[in-house]
User: What shape does this take?
Amino acid sequence: MSRKISDIILIGPISTGKSTLGKLLAHKLGIPQCSMDDVRLDYYKEINYDEELAKQIREEEGFQGIYRYWKPFEAYAVERVLSEYSNCVIDFGAGHSVYEDDELFRRVKQVLEPYINVVLILPSPDLEESIQILNERNGGIVSNGFDLNEYFVKHHSNYDLAKFVVYTKGKSPEETRDEILKIVKL
Assistant: This one.
């Protein structure tokens, strides 16, 4: 399988700046940006995503329930976006790189394997500080005792998928963009 060097894929928790950095990188490189959050529902619907069922699950089980429902759709969306988009910057939604189910994680890991520029974006190398910074940015996302910022920061999937990690603390988005451009292989 050939290595995919023309794409940059940004992964990481909610509110780390993936979409902002994707836009800045795409503009600087003169290539398109694909934001997973903009295209994911179309992909979900290809494999029978049911919005009414999702709404019902969210009402009955809260965020954890809907998050579990989304997981197979998220893995499928990763496969589809990577099959459809090339020579661009792709920023994943936070859940698209985090999986509890081993088979879903294997699928995502396999489809990302040829991509050498998978960059995990985090606020800080100190995980507790990253959680604190994200809580300040997004007000903290807790549902039925489930702390989403902590979950995404500490989950192994992001670290297992990333080829590089970039920290944003103390840097402007443009400085972070330039750091990414220095470490990726284009």
Remarks:
- The chain has a mean pLDDT of 94.
- The chain has eight helices and seven strands.
